Amino acid sequence: MSDVKLWDFHGGIHPPERKALSNRTPIQPAPLPARLILPLGQHIGTPAEPIVAVGERVLKGQPIAAASGRVSAPLHAPTSGTVGFIGLQPYPHVSGMLAPAIVIDSDGLDEWTTLEPCADYRSLEPALLLERIRLAGISGLGGAGFPTAMKLTARPQEKIHTLIINGAECEPYITADDRLMRERAAELVVGIEILAWLIQPEQVLIGIEDNKPEAIAAMRTAIGERPFSLRVLPTKYPSGGEKQLVEILTGQQVPSGGLPADIGILCQNVGTCVAIHDAVLLGRPLISRIVTLTGEALARPMNVEALLGTPVSELLAFAGLDETRMDRLIMGGPMMGLTLPSLDAPLIKTSNCLLAPTRSELPPPPAALPCIRCGACADVCPASLLPQQLHFFTLGQGHEQLKTHNLFDCIECGACAYVCPSNLPLVQYYRAAKAEIRELEQKQHKAEHSRRRFELRQERLRKAEEQKEAERQARAEKAARAKAVEAESASVPHQEVLPANPAAGFSDLQKRLKIEASMAQVALKKAEKQLAAHVTAELEAQVAELRAAAEAAQKALAAATAAAPAGADAALKKAKIELAMKRAELKKAEKADADETELTRLREALAGAERNLHAAEEASDKPAPQLVRTNKRPLDEKLRALKTELAFARADLRKLERDEAADPPALESARTRLAEAERRLAEHQSE
């Protein structure tokens, strides 16, 4: 292999390595524990869901919890035995928190379930190969714990051109990857081949720090003539950080807030590659891992292959722990590890080291002093951040400023705290600030989700009400038309038809003839009265003349009435229909509490329809009806309100009952509301 160019990243430190404590002996098998505690959340993402029950016997490698989301990973039984408990158990966290877990009581047989090995992985379709990796429960063994199958599923626009295998293992004390590369290089290289077969990169780069000469030699031998490039890196912490390793090997920088996949690069840990080999070729799920047991409080520091779920107390006892000398227990290395409050926590997929130092070996940090603004933290930050500014923003809870200054680009390597002359626990501040921001964002997300659900519900109710109103309007219009048709033989509702005035309802010609006939009749009667009082020949002649004129006028009126056009009846029918519709529109608007402008317009339209009806009646040959209003029973507004509330309560309950995701408290509240509405209506009707 020819020399290749390497780049460097900003900052970094050179703390004492202390790797010789644990890398001198081969990997040892850890004893089979009597009880295994398997937390359901051993990876980034959604915890797995149990698929076994208490009392059930399980076999080694049998699935016991299924992935419950897109970013999730299944869990398998590390040995055969009986499920003894499912619930909260100790979890490896600085807070001493409890977490959901499955407890298996070992039967000591270590009996495997049926496995499905595949000797020729190239015979599998990529989708089936990826499914094998997913079902094996593999997540990143380098520390982050991202589900591997999910990481391998890159989007089409992010074509992976470079596959980087991380064997740097830069943190002090930890030697799990070192021993793995020395002893299982052949399986590791096959795991790399499987990854290359899956993603078809243009190049494969393997990065190892130069403080691991035995691992470098073993890997070179295993690679042979394969087109993989092994690159030896200068020892510097944290060169094993994903973004830092990308920059060292390619010279490219991952953008702030982004991932290596954003620039076409995929990184995998060497331990993950071996797990992929075991899953594909041997059919074995991820049930164990290599873990470093180190620190001067241990009589026999070493690397062991331990079953997941093994209590850390049993692993430390196997390494000869002297609890009187141990100052504290750290899971991980001295830079990025976390202090465990007890020895009851179990080993999980991301646990690469258990460090049991003495007080003299890793003395507690002195008391923190005020920041002197020396800038040393910025000089060593591998992410090119401003730790000093981030520190002040965390003290003031300036969450927006923290995000603006790229707090989430911090990899929590601890380099800033390592060089701080004021002994400020900077990483602890950053971790707390990240947790606060995530919690606030989660609350905001929930609030936004609730707001959107409320708005969608209101929109559904509005549309339903509009549909009901449209249906009511259609029914009202239909009823108005029906009433208008009946109006030919009867008046509008609540009106009684009495005998018509025979003098009403004429056309202009009929009206003129009627007036002439009436005047002739009046003149005749007046003359007849005068004749009765004073009988004279002149008055007799005048009465006879007036009687003849009155008879002629009456005959003319009768003839005009008989010859009245039939179209006047049709106009009268149309006017009655129009009047009924206008009256219905006004009543509907009044019930809907329309504004005064709209009500005024509708009242004027009604008055105009009444005038048109009167004109049509005068132009037709039908007599105008004499209308007598009847009293209506007063409207019971309270009864109407109670019936409306009952209808809405019943509708809301039915909607909730149809919604599978409805909350039980909401259903109970809706049922209580309906019962109360029925009770109040019954009480009112009985009064």
Automatic annotation (TrEMBL):
Start and end residues of each stretch annotated as Disordered: 611-635, 654-687
* A GO biological process held by the record: electron transport chain
Subcellular localization is given as: Cell inner membrane
Known cofactor(s)? [4Fe-4S] cluster
Sorted alphabetically, which InterPro entries does this protein's record hold?
4Fe4S_Fe-S-bd, 4Fe4S_Fe_S_CS, Ion_transpt_RnfC/RsxC, Nuo51_FMN-bd, Nuo51_FMN-bd_sf, RnfC_N, Soluble_ligand-bd
Question: What keywords tag this UniProt record?
Answer: 4Fe-4S, Cell inner membrane, Cell membrane, Coiled coil, Electron transport, Iron, Iron-sulfur, Membrane, Metal-binding, Repeat, Translocase, Transport
Q: What class of enzyme is it?
A: translocase
Annotated coiled-coil positions are 430-481
In the UniProt record, which is one GO cellular component term?
plasma membrane
* Positions of [4Fe-4S] cluster 2 binding: 381, 410, 413, 416
How the cofactor binds, per note?
Binds 2 [4Fe-4S] clusters per subunit.
The organism's place on the tree of life at top rank: Bacteria
Q: Name one GO molecular function term.
A: electron transfer activity
Q: Cite the record's note on assembly.
A: The complex is composed of six subunits: RnfA, RnfB, RnfC, RnfD, RnfE and RnfG.
**Name this polypeptide is given:** Ion-translocating oxidoreductase complex subunit C
What is the native source organism of this protein?
A: Azotobacter chroococcum
Question: Which gene codes for it?
Answer: rnfC
